[in-house]
Amino acid sequence: MSSITSTIWPIASDCFPSSSILADEVPTASAIERISTDQGVRWLWLGVFAAEILWDDESWELLSLGHVRRAREDGALGVLPVALSQRAALHILEGDLAAATSLIEEAETISKATGSQRLLAVRVALAAFRGRESQASELAEVSAKDAAGRGEGAGLTFLQWATAVLYNGFGRYEEALAAAQRAVDDQHELLFSTWAAAEVVEAATRSGVPERAVSALRRLSDSTQASGSDWALGIEARSRALGSDDEAAERLYREAIGRLACTRLRMELGRAHLLYGEWLRRQNRRIDAREQLRTAHQMFADMGADGFEERAGRELRATGERVRKRTADPRAQLTAREAQIARLAGDGLSNPEIAARLFMSPRTVEYHLHKIFTKLDINSRNQLHGVLASQRNEGQPQAQ
After folding, report:
1. Using CA of residue 306, residue 310, residue 316, residue 322, what is the dihedral sign?
2. Do the beta carbons of residue 264 and residue 302 sit within 8 Å?
3. I need a surface site. Which of 66, 89, 196, 221 has the fewest CB within 10 A?
4. What is the pTM of this model?
């Protein structure tokens, strides 16, 4: 366990007065199960925040799932939107944008019904990773005014990080650098300003001002080295590769891909393949570049990350590769979450039973089923079992 992990998890455990389950250990599923509903509703958000700071994606998964479950069990409608948003943010980095959309919409429905604060920032991040510039810009403007009005500096830093991701996705590096630098300059915020440091490194090196990446890389390394997780060290290796010489760069890109492949975060892995492919093309290694760029292009296409997909496509074409336009209807494939729900519904489970199994609301299950029926061109759950069985027999993928 890294020094920062062994320091922060015991601090977080102080929030659970009747249990020391987080002290001296990284959270486990069984440990989280021992947290009472009341304690979980009140404090698991802090555990999620600690996991994010620690670059600990597995704990983020366990703690966010536990927080949503406890909030549902307690009927804590004031807390549930926050829990859903934290989990949605993880789904975004996992590349499951459909699942993130579902959770965000549920959070907004609850917020509207209870008259509580709307959580727009995570929707900005979703639009950024999808490459929806106009939507991201409009939402960011509204969210920034709300955050500024409440004096929430962290909210503004999050928006600047998301904006930097949007423009790096498009390859508009000067705009990305401007947004990311504003986020990094926030010396009082510990999480999103650190994430933004990686965006500064990418944008600065690609904008022809590599000297501006030096302090950002130092800021990033302070955090990633203290963590020592595959996520952290993968992001650091990817960032260091951008400013390294030929031999070191290749080693670092390979390290980044190897480490990020061990995490849940397919979006970050896709970006590592993209950057490595771009570097290989600039080394005139076109055949090697095509392999990496094809991987990145397919990953982004599967995830629905349109900005990064377009950037990977441009790079592929620059290698002489002919990039096929999408010919298949994107509705014909199910996301991983939709495939899971379709399978359970096809097995005869009711919406409440599926909701209990997956720790979501019956309303969310109904929302997913409506999308599933549309994609599969069916009109009832009785048809699901046969359609899914037919896909398996034909060897067609059921999930992106």
Report:
1. positive
2. no
3. 221
4. 0.79
Amino acid at 144: A
C-alpha 154/C-alpha 151 separation (Å) is 9
Instruction: Tell me which long-range contacts 326-332 makes (C-beta under 8 A, separation of at least 24).
Output: 326/301, 330/304, 331/374, 331/375, 332/375
User: What topology does CATH give the domain 331-393?
Assistant: Arc Repressor Mutant, subunit A (1.10.10)
How far is the C-alpha of 78 from the C-alpha of 111, rounded, in Å?
A: 8
Mean pLDDT computed over 84-98: 94
Is the separation of the CB atoms in 92 and 267 below 8 Å? yes
CA dist., res. 344 & res. 321, Å (int): 41
- How many whole angstroms separate alpha carbon 24 and alpha carbon 12? 11
Q: How many CA atoms lie within 13 A of 215 on its CB side?
A: 8
Per-residue pLDDT of 237-266, as tens digits, reads: 999 999 998 889 999 999 999 999 999 999
Mean pLDDT over 65-85 rounds to 90
- 3-state per-residue secondary structure call for the chain: CCHHHHHHHHHHHCCCCCCCCCCCCCCCHHHHHCCCHHHHHHHHHHHHHHHHHCCCHHHHHHHHHHHHHHHHHHCCCCCHHHHHHHHHHHHHHHCCHHHHHHHHHHHHHHHHHHCCCCCCHHHHHHHHHHCCHHHHHHHHHHHHHHHHHHCCHHHHHHHHHHHHHHHHHHCCHHHHHHHHHHHHCCCCCCCHHHHHHHHHHHHHHHCCCHHHHHHHHHHHHHHHHHHCCHHHHHHHHHHHHHCCCHHHHHHHHHHHHHHHCCCCCHHHHHHHHHHHHHHHHHCCCHHHHHHHHHHHHHHHHHHCCHHHHHHHHHHHHHCCCCCCCCCCCHHHCECHHHHHHHHHHHCCCCHHHHHHHHCCCHHHHHHHHHHHHHHHCCCCHHHHHHHHHHHHHCCCCCEC
Tens of pLDDT, residues 186-232: 988 889 999 999 999 999 999 999 999 999 999 999 999 999 999 99
